[in-house]
């Protein structure tokens, strides 16, 4: 039996449902389908949809918000995950159990996460308000998600909660790859703990950090579930990230050509990041 | 204070600090989930208090009863809730069907492809797999427009089968990738011996290769089940009725309706998280090993 025959069924599925649609989407992106005015027919418009995307202030704002999400995911997520990994890397009773519990947020479906955070951020009965009020930090309940100036930050926090444990596991794996002799040699030389961290741990974890940077950026461009459930892109479009903007262009405005152009712009950007990611992980594999 | 005493008290302080830090990590990771669970066990008036009553005592399990059995005879559940509860149970069933089918398809077809790319050395095969993994890392939203236009033209919208086939295609590359890694680790001699004895390739795969790669199958299977159970965008776009909706979409509708039975909503969230959670706990060892061997897709 040949390799081709064994591979045929799954590759047919992938070809038919992933690759052909990608190609079809490229074609659609060059047309105006007039889905809301079908009597106008289908019109070939060259790169008009792409021009529209690049000159659209809404799309630019959506990219800005996506990068903001990525920046929070990286700027807060990486230091927190690294600290968590350092804490969990030391020996203590029940370490295996605690490490196991790290996957809990990742396993919870995105829509349940949305439900959970909508309850926590609830302006009238939410846990965040209740907790901060009880601790005396706020004197009255705050409308966290209804305020356009901080809704995106709240979404970023919810997103951070789900992504930190996974990054922590990556850092834990990275820490296990660092030879103990390095620390012993450093402590013999009279190096302090902080010095050992900056001279040994931090530089040797750089590959993990680089991978996390890329993964968090790709994740920000994929974010949809949380935004759909928590805010629906609002208030006043303040949480409209690229994933949601594309969804609305396609399924609310029915502007299929424009949405396909957006899809290709996002695909090329994330594809380049994914390529970088696979280059780095393959280089890691070879060096190990 | 003797030297050893000082050392012991220093160790004690270190252990106490470590315990506090570990507790902080646990609070971050589990705090929100614990609130969901305590909410599901609360009476409505406890959740409407300011600040809420954090620890419901005695715990009220009635919401779980309502979700599982629909309130039953003589219950006080309103008709609106009654239909919501029925839709939720239907959605749980749909999610179970979808996740099981996707897992089966991905494992069966992924085994064949994983084996072929692991055993028959071809540069083209390896290149193809890397390309597929790249495609898989693209946001799903990118595929929605063309798939929606194609499937609506041939009348395949709002069918459970459509969701199953789409999710299978989306998760296939990663399954092939994980299984390929495991198959490459199996000594060729074992298979050659079986081939000499007159076994066919398919028999070799079923009788020799698969039993030796159970950890890989568990890892890939758990991953696929979880990802298809948690899938949101695909069922959201491609289903539109109570009979085809999956549980993730049903949950999103709970939130959208400005429903105020928070305890019921929370209990639904807990139930909807149980299948992937139990599976992940059960197969955790394999899952983590499998995930660190490849891309981590959230």
Describe, in short, the structure shown:
Chain A is mainly alpha-helical and 288 residues long. Chain A contains 15 helices and two strands.
What's the shape of chain B? globular
Note the beta-strand portion of chain B.
under 5%
N-to-C CA distance of chain A: 35 Å
Q: In sequence order, what are the helices and strands of chain A, one letter per element? A: HEEHHHHHHHHHHHHHH
Instruction: Write down the domain tally of chain B.
Output: 2
The CATH architecture of chain A can be given as Orthogonal Bundle
- What would the CATH topology of the largest domain in chain B be? MetI-like fold
Shape of chain A: globular
The domain count of chain A comes to 1
Overall mean pLDDT of chain B stands at 84
Category by helix and strand content of chain B: mainly alpha
Explain what you see.
The complex is a heterodimer of chains A (288) and B (298). Chain A has 288 residues and is mainly alpha-helical. Chain A has a single domain, classed as Orthogonal Bundle (MetI-like fold), CATH 1.10.3720.10. Chain A contains 15 helices and 2 strands. In chain A, strands 1-2 form a two-stranded antiparallel ribbon. Chain B is mainly alpha-helical. Chain B is built from 14 helices and no strands. In chain B, helix 1 crosses helix 13 and helix 4 (79-119) runs antiparallel to helix 10 (214-230). Chain B is globular. The model of chain B is unreliable at 294-298 (pLDDT under 50).
